[in-house]
Each structure stands twice: as structure tokens, then as C-alpha cells.
Amino acid sequence: MARIKAIDRQKAIYVGGLGGKRPRVPAHPKALAEKARKCMSPEAWAYVAGGAGLEHTMDHNRQAFAQWRIIPRMLRDVSERDTSIELFGRQLPAPLLLAPIGVLELAHREADLAVARAAAELGVPMIFSNQASVPMETCALAMGDSPRWFQLYWSKSDDLVASFMRRAERCGCEAIVVTLDTTMLGWRLRDIDLAYLPFLEGLGIAQYTSDPVFQQMIESPPPADGMELKPPRNLTTIRKVVRLMRRYPGSFWHNLRSGKPLKAVRTFIQTYSRPSLTWDDLERLREMTRLPIVLKGILHSGDARKAVEYGVDGIIVSNHGGRQVDGALASLEALPAVVQAVEGRIPVLLDSGVRTGSDVYKALALGAAAVLIGRPYVYGLAIAGEEGVAEVLRNFMADFELTMGLAGCRNVREIRQERLLRVQ
Q1: How far is the first Cα of the chain from the last one, in angstroms, to the nearest whole number?
Q2: Are strands 68-70 and 348-350 parallel, antiparallel or unpaired?
Q3: Per-residue model confidence as pLDDT tens digits over 194-225
Q4: 168: which residues sit within 8 A by CB, 6+ positions away?
Q5: Model-level pTM?
Q6: CATH of 28-193+277-422, one of 3.20.20.70, 3.40.50.1970, 3.40.30.10, 3.30.70.2750
Q7: Residue 320 among the catalytic residues
Q8: Which of 28, 56, 254, 320 is catalytic?
Q9: Cα–Cα distances in Å, from 78 out to 226, 396, 401, 404, 407?
């Protein structure tokens, strides 16, 4: 796969401007988000763009990047630049992965499938979401041999977890990303004020409804121990139930007669999260899969050391994009201590708050092996579907390459912390 050089990317945009053509997908992060907002429903926008509480953690993520300054070095021959890295034995064109984000049908009707195609086009790994709108097998088929990982939300059913692991292996996933910080949903004020949770309408549960173990669970669901589906009986509820019947796999009339879609949603609610997880549970996961296990949500150096002790293969420093704990420290703030704690024994990746190529550069200089791109690609998806995602990725790759070169680095290995200055 030929990599598009940053200079060529720039030229194509500027030459297009001679004919009055401007990019459909804005490059500026704020303009990108604003245009996406206009393409989405208020509920969809709140779910994707919102964070926990007063969203201080989201602010911290951005402020943390602003506290570091890049120190460019001059007269270093950077005419040839190599942005590639190797991760778990796979050569990647850039230190970028697509973060797992659920319920992508809120942004675009093709959802995960559009993202998968764009990721495959550019060779960027996609981490399939546990809460996807399209089954992992469908996305994997569209990606060919392009790299992909699978994100796991560990549910109350180990049988279901094991089934997800088997499916991930069969469809060519190269790592399992265990998300640790969402064993319960954070207090997200935008969603609370709109009284909106997409899963209750059958959105974002395609990995479940396509799973044979989950289908068996529908017939004999676990006992309810939390929220039950007892909405008010009115026209709004009826319309949403009808949409659920149309959306669920199978014919509308069969779904209506069987009531299976409602049973599936109830079963999902009763199964989804497992706040009782402990470190010892990782041993069971290792028995379920031969794939590398990566822990997502680590922010403390003590947890990082423990992860190494328990034999995990990688860490993603993440605060879930500020969606779980309001007032938590920024992922970038936590990164140096986590990197120091693992002592180079496993790769450390960074997630949350990455918006530009210079953000990528700073994260790598502080020890990250790669970074995860989150909301920006969803905004591209909302604006222009598959091509919108590809445009966002092309912009990230070009911005990073130029930043790297202008800072005096010919390749990723030359990006080191000594090339940064921290300011208050």
C-alpha cells in the first residue's frame, strides 16, 4: 500500500483551491466538530461529544497537550521521512489506531462498516467496538488483510466473553483490548438531561445479537438485578418499539410476534457490565485467547506495574475520552509515569484528547508507542461517511509527518522527550 506523502496531500488541497474546491471535511478540529454537530441529531451529538459531569476531564485532556512545547532542531536532513512503526509484529504506516467507539449508527447509516473500509484503505488498525452497530465479521470481511483488534467489555457471562474471543480470533483480530474503566456508565449530564441511552433502543448491540451464545441467553436471560424496561406507554414509546422491530435482524412481523428484539435489549441490560472484575480475572481471559491482551484505562503507575506482573501484552493509557470520571487526570499527564513503570517490557499507547499531528508527536516523545484517534473520525463519519473517515486520517497522517520533519526528526525513533519543554 503506497503511503500518501504529506507534501502531496498539501499540494492536492491547494491545487484544488485554484478551482474553488475546498475540503468537504474541515481540517481544523473545532470546525470539524461543529460541522459534524450539524449532521447529527441532538441525542446523537450529546452521546458522542459529551463527557462525564461538567466535562472537566475532557478539558484536562486538551490542556495537558498545551503544557508541552515542541523544540524544533535545525539543519537535520529531513527530505525523507518515515512515519512507520512496528506493533505486535505488524508494520504500520503511522503510529495511529482507530479507538473503539460504540453506536456508530448514530453518526452514519453505514456505521462501523464505513470506518472499516476507510481504515483498510490507509492501513490504519481499527479496534472493533464491543458496542458496535455492525458485527465484527462483516467489518473484517471488508478489511481484507488490513490490521484490526477487538475491544472487550467484560460482561457478567464468561461464556459470552469466550464466544467473543473465539469470533475475534476467527475474523483475524490481532489483539484484545480490555476496557477497564467502564464497568459502569459514568454520570454523563448531556445524556441525562436528554434522558437518552441508545442501547435501550437496540442500538450498538450488533456484536451481541450476532452471537450464538447471546442468542441462547435471550431464551433464558439472567435474573434482573438493575434497570428494567418499563417505559411509559405512549406514542413515543410505540414509535421507538416499531423502529427496534425494523432494526433488529429478521423480518419485522416475525420480530413483532416473537418479541425477540425487546428480549435482546433486556438481556443485554442484565448482562452488559461487570463491576466485580479484579486482577485475578485476567487469568481466565488468558485461557480464552491466544491473542495479545491490552488493558485500556490504566492511569496509575502501580496499575501499570501490576499489569506487567500479570503478563498482559500492552497498555492503553486512557480516561475514556473524559466520559467516565469528571475531574480525572489527563491521559497525557499519566503517560510518563506509566511508561517509566513498565520499563520498556510492553508497549504503552495513548488515548483521549488527541486532535492534531503535534499531539501525536508529543505523545510519542513522552513514551507512547502509538496513539488512538477517537471522536475526530466519528465526526468525519457523520459528515461524509467512509470518505469522511479517510479524510480525517489523511489529515492526521500528513500533519504528523510534517510536524515530525519540521521538528528535525526523520523517523519515529528520533522523537524523544528531550525535544519537548514543559511549561505551566
Answers
A1: 42
A2: unpaired
A3: 999 999 999 999 999 999 999 999 987 666 65
A4: 128, 136, 150, 176, 289, 291
A5: 0.95
A6: 3.20.20.70
A7: yes
A8: 320
A9: 58, 19, 10, 9, 9
